[in-house]
Amino acid sequence: MRTLLRGGRVIDPATGFDGIADVLVTDGVITAVGAGGPGGAGDTEIDVSGLVVGPGFIDLHSHVHTIAGQRLQAMDGVTTALDLEAGLMPVERAYAEAAAAGRPLHYGFSASWGSARAKVLAGIEPDANIGSGLAVLGNTAWQRSSSPGELAAWLSLVDGELAAGALGIGVLLGYAPATDPGEFLAVARLAKEAGVPTYTHVRELVEVDPATPADGSGEIAIVAAETGAAMHHCHVNSTSGRHVDRVLAELEAGRSAGSRVTVEAYPYGAGSTAIGAAFLSPERLKMKGLSPSSVVMLETGERFSDEARLLQVRAEDPGAPCILEFLDEKDPLDRALLHQALAFPDAIVASDAMPVFWKDGVSESAEWPLPPGGTTHPRTAGTYAKTLRLMVRESGAWTWLEAFRRCSYLPARVLDEVAPAARAKGRLDVGADADIVVLDPAAITDAATYFDSTRPSVGVRHLFVAGVPVVSDGHLRTDAFPGRPLRGEPR
């Protein structure tokens, strides 16, 4: 089957091309790019004049493992949604269950450092489920340092997951912030030996906790330099907060000295996690200059009025999702910090998308539009459209070419070594995978808010995943499940 996209403004961040052209797609691959109907007409011809045509967005940091959540991401321009910060274990089960259910978008998973440690240190059997994973975050049994035997045991589990096709190692270091720094060094050495990246939620900064075993952002740069491993710093905006100046300067110094550290950010002043996370304890919030009122329960909207209530919910339901407000998006100075993280040279856009939850713990729905009552973080539905609105449409900080470089090309390059199939993604030249977003440059914007979090973004006119239309004329196609697994190279 052939599809011809005619007359759009074509952006290819791989070659630097930005101009009016036609794009021919044949059996899931881009077979021609040029003017005047390259390669002849397609079986289907779509007039995209006045629209921007580029490679679909590759989200390195999505905890969305459902059709419902992936549909929201599709409407935001995403064609590949990967859970790399946390990962899932066992990874074979994660891939098998996604394939059996069907996915609108491409998908993939890292080896879960947290699950491997929880299995060895706390006897918690992983089940490749995000709900179970959130509950484990509040269990302190796995958050201690390991004995030499325990370290060897869980490193072996991680290595086995890499052999099974995991896309690197996801390290939730911020959820076990007191662990021996030597363990993180051992993980990086394993990653270097295996030829895979790590994806790290770093531990606390020294400004927040002077007693931390290592400064979070400094540690990742040092370990990358010492081992030569490729190390990805997750959501630098949320882990840096108001210390982003120092963090970015330190990361840039490390990169200039040869450290292979990549950075991601998202355009929101609030994060989302499980209420039992270590950094949401009352004492940790105080260290950050925050209070219980900075925390809001996702499903009920409850904002904590005091420490006693926060401690009660953390004890009763540690896996319950919540929102943590770390910057005030209404404050010009805080907005500038978010802009600074996104504008950092080569910073990658990644969503940290969360599942959609309905009452009684339901996290899946085959309905579209999504049924009422669903809640999530607005970044699930709006990260990419909001970033384009802020960085291209409103501030002019990025050109469209730069925007696609940050949202499509650079994230694909993080995966090149671990997954050779990624080399055909994040680009819009002949031979590339036909993962394509077509958007209205004047209309693209986010619609989701903290109070109405499942509203799809506006402005994505067409979305193709492996050449199959998932969004057509701005409407999601509920019969489209073309997502394929992206896996690490077997070894």
TrEMBL record:
<feature type="domain" description="Amidohydrolase 3">
    <location>
        <begin position="45"/>
        <end position="471"/>
    </location>
</feature>
<protein>
    <submittedName>
        <fullName>Dihydroorotase</fullName>
    </submittedName>
</protein>
<dbReference type="InterPro" id="IPR011059">
    <property type="entry name" value="Metal-dep_hydrolase_composite"/>
</dbReference>
<dbReference type="Pfam" id="PF07969">
    <property type="entry name" value="Amidohydro_3"/>
</dbReference>
<dbReference type="InterPro" id="IPR013108">
    <property type="entry name" value="Amidohydro_3"/>
</dbReference>
<dbReference type="GO" id="GO:0016812">
    <property type="term" value="F:hydrolase activity, acting on carbon-nitrogen (but not peptide) bonds, in cyclic amides"/>
</dbReference>
<dbReference type="InterPro" id="IPR032466">
    <property type="entry name" value="Metal_Hydrolase"/>
</dbReference>
<dbReference type="GO" id="GO:0005829">
    <property type="term" value="C:cytosol"/>
</dbReference>
<dbReference type="InterPro" id="IPR050378">
    <property type="entry name" value="Metallo-dep_Hydrolases_sf"/>
</dbReference>
